[in-house]
């Protein structure tokens, strides 16, 4: 069918993602597994995957299930896979985290949970990739954001396959020499494919569309083709680094990624300058702040690669990319997307048949501004704590990020519950009260 | 908005026992880039659909009565997006309402169009200009039994659409 409908399970993906974010931030605040110099430390692996897969992974999947039909102006293909995919991802993640916990001796569980979890994650995320890919491929040539999303899905595949290889070695299921060698050197490549390749590229592609949409800008981003080209080069170098000259290839990948980021930054500034909507809403402001962490994070990772600094700059850079850029952008967009989808779901049937509230009636800007400000200040403080090796600052600041996320979650729940909507407009005839975790299906 | 069509009536040819396929193909060859072909035939020319699809044409079929069919072939590049049940908008009546909604922030155009449709009589048509393709409006129109066609203008910055009010009040 032409056009886009509400994705039924997106809200469930978002809810699970936010729960994982809170858990991850609480783990950081408790000093569990982070900051650690050693990536292979089981506690670090638990915290990192809670954030990377539990929060960011589910957030991106949920957002793609809703956004891909908007990009394609077509219903999502195989949309009945959305719920099974979520269950597979949740089961896979639980097994994976339990496997890490058993490696660290926190629980007593068979190590085979690791590859089993990895396999379920491959199946679940594979289903998401199938739904999005099958919808986008037929018209990808006409839609540049669509090509970005497809590129991201290819990077996701690489991330998953590498991760699956690691689980085989970590769980001692396989002792193949090449697998052990791969696990020894390819962890940063796995992280690069996941964080920058999948999520970063998707975020960039999608934000081209969303930013010009929210700012009513005529400038669609002139450099987007160049950004895509350099991103593809970066990913190819990253892929090549698996087989030849890992050091040089990783450096080349970083350089191409930096060029892509610079062109992207220039485009976003152009989009913001030529906007017709003069007043910038909190979600857009927070998004623009979040974007500032992209060059800072990439810069720190590059500095660490170029010279031997005594401070853990790469880790700080990765932290800023994950928590400042991607998480900040994600939270900011959720603050726009959740009220909009709730509004459409609730008032769609009543629209035109009587007065309905505006989308803005579902939210209050002030608590959101405060929460976003607190979040970004806390992220900066935590980064300083990491770089300067002050664990208490890092942990206290992580507590601050957890608290501000909690405030945002309360605001999201209030939007879903129509808490701020004036009583007279709350449920006009025909409107349907939204459920918290799932969108109500309507006949097509 | 109206699509330019060349017309070919193959009914007289068939009545005289002349194979119409070469004539149809030479008519297709003679089309200008944006032009469509309106074909009148005494049966539903099913095999032709695939041939034309391979040549880059979509089609819309209308039964004329007496076993005759009108088929409108549209070059895909020039074709417009439309609801599943929308037959050729060429035969829709003139729009009773023209709305320039390009200055409204989304999703206000959606609310406005749905509200205007409630006031209109079944079969009446409205024309609207929007700053974006209203992807969430399309399923809502379909659910309410309205038909629509629409596409971007030459500059790609304005989306224009025709919506024909449906018969009933579905999905109330």
UniProtKB/TrEMBL annotation, chain A:
Annotated transmembrane regions: 12-34, 46-72, 84-107, 113-139, 146-170, 176-206, 226-245, 251-272, 284-307, 313-335, 368-387, 393-413
Keywords in alphabetical order: Membrane, Transmembrane, Transmembrane helix
Superkingdom as given in the UniProt entry: Bacteria
Name of the molecule in the record: Uncharacterized protein
Lineage: Bacteria, Pseudomonadati, Pseudomonadota, Alphaproteobacteria, Hyphomicrobiales
UniProtKB/TrEMBL annotation, chain B:
Top-rank lineage group of the source organism: Bacteria
Gene3D superfamilies: TusA-like domain (3.30.110.40)
Pfam annotation, one family: DUF2249
Record domain DUF2249: where: 7-72, 98-162
Annotated InterPro entries: DUF2249, TusA-like_sf
Protein's name according to its UniProt entry: DUF2249 domain-containing protein
Species of provenance: Rhizobium lemnae
């Amino acid at each position: 069918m032409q056009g886009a409908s509400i994705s039924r399970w997106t809200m469930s993906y978002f809810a699970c993602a936010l729960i994982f974010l809170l858990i991850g931030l609480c783990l950081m605040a408790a000093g569990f597994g982070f900051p650690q110099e050693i990536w292979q430390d089981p506690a670090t692996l638990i915290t990192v995957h809670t954030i990377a897969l539990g929060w960011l992974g589910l957030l991106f999947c949920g957002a793609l299930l809703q956004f891909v039909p908007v990009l394609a102006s077509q219903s999502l293909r195989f949309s009945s896979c959305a719920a099974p995919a979520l269950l597979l991802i949740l089961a896979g993640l639980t097994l994976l985290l339990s496997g890490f916990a058993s490696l660290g001796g926190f629980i007593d569980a068979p190590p085979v949970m690791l590859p089993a979890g990895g396999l379920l994650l491959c199946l679940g995320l594979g289903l998401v990739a199938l739904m999005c890919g099958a919808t986008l491929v037929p018209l990808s040539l006409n839609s540049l954001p669509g090509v970005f999303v497809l590129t991201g899905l290819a990077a996701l595949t690489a991330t998953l396959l590498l991760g699956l290889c690691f689980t085989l070695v970590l769980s001692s299921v396989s002792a193949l020499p090449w697998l052990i060698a791969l696990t020894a050197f390819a962890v940063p490549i796995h992280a690069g494919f996941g964080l920058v390749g999948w999520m970063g590229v998707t975020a960039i592609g999608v934000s081209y569309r969303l930013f010009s949409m929210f700012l009513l800008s005529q400038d669609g981003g002139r450099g987007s083709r160049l950004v895509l080209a350099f991103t593809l080069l970066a990913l190819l170098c990253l892929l090549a680094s698996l087989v030849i000259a890992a050091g040089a290839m990783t450096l080349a990948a970083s350089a191409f990624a930096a060029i892509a980021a610079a062109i992207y930054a220039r485009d976003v500034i152009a989009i913001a300058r030529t906007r017709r909507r003069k007043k910038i809403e909190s979600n857009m402001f927070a998004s623009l702040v979040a974007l500032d962490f992209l060059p800072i994070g990439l810069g720190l990772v590059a500095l660490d690669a170029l010279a031997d600094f005594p401070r853990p700059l790469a880790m700080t850079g990765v932290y800023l990319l994950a928590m400042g850029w991607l998480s900040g952008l994600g939270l900011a967009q959720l603050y726009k997307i959740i009220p909009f989808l709730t509004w459409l779901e609730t008032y769609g049937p009543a629209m035109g048949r009587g007065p309905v509230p505006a989308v803005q009636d579902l939210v209050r800007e002030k608590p959101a501004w405060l929460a976003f400000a607190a979040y970004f200040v806390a992220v900066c403080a935590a980064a300083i704590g990491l770089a300067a090796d002050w664990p208490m600052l890092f942990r206290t600041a992580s507590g601050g990020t957890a608290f501000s996320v909690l405030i945002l979650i309360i605001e999201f729940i209030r939007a879903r519950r129509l808490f701020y909507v004036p009583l007279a407009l709350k449920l006009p005839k025909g409107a349907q009260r939204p459920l918290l975790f799932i969108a109500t299906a309507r006949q097509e | 908005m109206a699509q330019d069509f060349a017309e070919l009536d193959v009914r007289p040819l068939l009545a005289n026992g002349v194979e119409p396929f070469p004539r149809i193909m030479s008519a297709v060859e003679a089309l200008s880039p944006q032009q469509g072909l309106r074909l009148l035939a005494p049966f539903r020319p099913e095999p032709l659909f695939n041939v034309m699809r391979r040549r880059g044409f979509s089609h819309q079929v209308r039964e004329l009565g007496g076993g005759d069919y009108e088929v409108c072939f549209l070059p895909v590049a020039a074709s417009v997006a439309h609801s599943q049940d929308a037959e050729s908008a060429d035969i829709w009546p003139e729009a009773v309402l023209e709305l320039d909604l390009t200055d409204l922030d989304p999703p206000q155009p959606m609310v406005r169009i749905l509200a205007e449709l409630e006031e209109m009589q079944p079969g009446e048509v409205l024309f609207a200009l929007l700053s974006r393709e209203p992807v969430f409006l399309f399923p809502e129109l379909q659910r309410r039994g309205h038909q629509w066609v629409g596409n971007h203008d030459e500059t790609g910055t304005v989306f224009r659409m025709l919506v024909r009010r449906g018969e009933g009040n579905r999905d109330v």
